[in-house]
Structure formats: C-alpha cells, structure tokens
Design a protein that fits this description.
2 domains; GatZ_KbaZ_carbometab; 0% strand; transmembrane helix; mainly alpha; 252 residues; PTS_IIC_man; membrane
C-alpha cells in the first residue's frame, strides 16, 4: 500500500510537466505528501522543508540541468521516515538520489525524446498539426510514467537497504551530517539570494533580519510584514506609472 501511495505521489509531482510551473514537484510539497502517506505528516513536512532549503536556489541555466529535485524530495523523505532518521540523513540521501535521478532524466531526454522529435518533424513536413501535438503529449507522458516508475521501484527496493546501511553508519558520521544539515540550507539560500538580490530588495532583507534578531518577531510575523511591504511598494509603483501616463496625456 505504501509503495502504491509513493507511486501516486510521484505521478502527481511529475504532472508538473503537464500543468505548467505550479511548483507541486518541490521537496516541501512532495515531502509533506510522503509524510502523510507514511503516517508521519509532521516529520514529512520538516524533512521536506529541510530539503527545500537546499534546492531552493537550484535552477536550470542554459545547458546546465540541476539535480532531479522531485525524486530527491520523495525518496529522501521516504527513506528517512522509514528508517526513523532525521532531516540530516534525509539531506544526505536526497542529494545523491537527485543526482542519480538526473542521470535517468537525461537518458530519457537522449534516447526517447529524439525519436519522438524526429517523428514530429515528419508530421510537420506533412502538415499534420495533430500528429505534432500528439508527439509533444506522448513525450511528456513517457517522461512522467518513466520517472514515476523509477521512483516507485526505488522505494520498494531501497527502504530495507537504506535501513541496514544506516544501522552500520558510525555515530560520528551521523554527527557530521547533522553539522552539514545546518550548512547546506545556507548554501541553497545563498544561491537564491544571488538571483533576487537587487538594490531595491537588499534593504528589506536586512530589515527583516534585524526585526528577527533584535525584536524576536517569529518568521510568520516577518512574512506577513513582507507581504504588506510588497503590496505597498507595488501600489506605489503602479500609481507612479499612472501619474506619468496622465501627465503625458495632458501635454498633448
């Protein structure tokens, strides 16, 4: 039953490729669903959030394809919950799993999708728009099914192996992983910050840090203040644009 649920979660996550960018494949979503399926929602949410912090700054740039976060989030969370381990072990598992998932993903891209692409080219020469559309849909369908099967089979075969492996790992290694757990989220956030930090955003970032550090406002409170600040800035920008348009109209 658990294997079936993990398989359905994998299908749901990979449906991102059908539905567009909905972020349902992110580790924080997948981890929560895995925790719910395995009877430990709280641990699933905690582990999913920890893995999300690592991968939140990872993005595909040009030909550089990032690790496969869906497989890493699902299997990392599932193996950690099944073995009774914490977030540090989940992170140690998620990174290599995501890398292996990327290899499987590239194999599909290199071996299967070119066949469908050439078939679509022939349909294009014939002026068969329906055939081209079907090749696009089939390409996505094959990818979703293939990756979901890989995740499902890996969970079915790997949970016992992971439990046995963790039982042999010395405590000093587990302690080292705990330290790495505290560092990796900082790396992930730093990668994200490099993409979004601008002169306009930096003051708000340090303002939030100061509020958290000195006024002891919880994260939820800072998030609410951030949303309010974003709405104020957006409204002011829109008002300035509208005023500029009105002034230009008056000149004519």
């Amino acid at each position: 039953m658990e294997t079936l649920l993990i398989g359905l979660i994998a299908v749901f996550g990979y449906l991102e490729y059908f539905l567009g960018t909905q972020m349902i494949q992110r580790p924080i979503v997948m981890g929560t669903l895995v925790g719910l399926a395995l009877g430990d929602l709280r641990q699933g949410l905690i582990i999913g959030a920890a893995i999300e912090l690592v991968f939140m700054g990872v993005a595909a740039i040009g030909a550089a394809i990032p690790p496969e976060v869906t497989a890493g989030g699902i299997l990392g969370t599932a193996f950690a919950i099944k073995s009774g381990a914490g977030a540090e072990v989940a992170l140690a598992l998620a990174l290599p799993i995501a890398t292996i998932g990327l290899l499987a993903k590239n194999c599909i891209y290199l071996l299967i999708r070119p066949i469908l692409a050439h078939k679509a080219d022939r349909y294009a020469e014939e002026g068969n728009a329906r055939g081209i559309e079907m090749m696009h849909l089939m390409s996505t369908f094959v990818f979703v099914v293939s990756m979901s099967l890989i995740v499902t089979v890996s969970f079915n075969l790997g949970s016992g192996v992971v439990e046995s492996f963790l039982a042999m790992v010395p405590k000093v290694i587990i302690n080292g992983l705990s330290v790495a757990t505290g560092l990796l989220p900082a790396v992930g956030f730093a990668l994200l910050a490099r993409m979004i930090m601008t002169k306009q955003v930096v003051p708000f970032f340090f303002l939030g840090f100061a509020i958290a550090a000195y006024l002891k406002v919880p994260v939820m409170g800072i998030a609410i203040m951030g949303v309010i600040a974003a709405l104020i800035v957006t409204n002011n920008s829109n008002n300035n644009v509208d005023k500029g348009v009105v002034e230009d109209d008056n000149e004519f």
